[in-house]
Amino acid sequence: EWPAPAAATWRTLAEALAGGLAGLPPGAIELLLLGAAFGVALVALERLGPSRWRRFCPSAASVGLAFVVPAYVAVAVAVGALLALAWRRLRPSAAETGLWPLAAGLIAGESLAGVALALGQIAGG
Predict the structure, then answer these.
(1) What count of other Cβ atoms lies within 10 Å of the Cβ of residue 42?
(2) What is the pLDDT of residues 20-66, one digit of tens each?
(3) Which candidate, 71, 39, 76, 72, places its Cα nearest to that of 58?
(4) Percent of the chain having pLDDT more than 70?
(5) Which of 12, 25, 61, 80 is 20 to 30 Å from 47 by CA-CA measure?
(6) Which residues, other chains included, contact 25 with Cβ-Cβ below 8 Å and sequence gap of 6+?
(7) What's the chain's Rg over C-alpha atoms?
(8) Which ranges in the chain belong to alpha helices (H)?
(9) 3-state SS assignment for residue 25
């Protein structure tokens, strides 16, 4: 009942692997290898690719995390990154001092709102 989507994803994976690789659905091994190859390619491009491409290359960890968290979290992070980029271009000095505190406040506020909603559900039955 508690909103821990990433934990639920890992639980499902652990249950699927409890019986070994035979517990995985058909095609899962091939997709696992494809995902691993994609991750290696991202890291190689980020470290060895032309410098003009590197800034457009997402980190392999962030791409993997986007598949673990719900879509609304991944979209919120992407929108936040685009807003931060726009702020840095429009007001670099203000973004330098205000971007991290604003982001931290938004994350903390969202977490506190989630806790408040959960406590309200508990109190209300």
Answers:
(1) 19
(2) 888 788 898 899 899 999 999 999 988 888 888 887 888 888 888 88
(3) 39
(4) 94
(5) 80
(6) 16
(7) 19
(8) 5-17, 28-48, 51-54, 60-68, 71-90, 92-124
(9) coil
Tell which residue, 1, 6, 2, has the closest CA to residue 70: 6
For residues 98-114, average pLDDT? 88
Which residues, 6+ apart, have CB-to-CB distance to 40 below 8 Å? 60
Threshold 0.90, pTM exceeds: no
Whole-angstrom distance, CA of residue 121 vs CA of residue 50: 52
Token pair of 82, please? 């685009």
Whole-number Å distance between alpha carbons of 99 and 81 = 10
Query: What's residue 125's pLDDT?
Result: 60
Structure tokens at 47: 């470290």
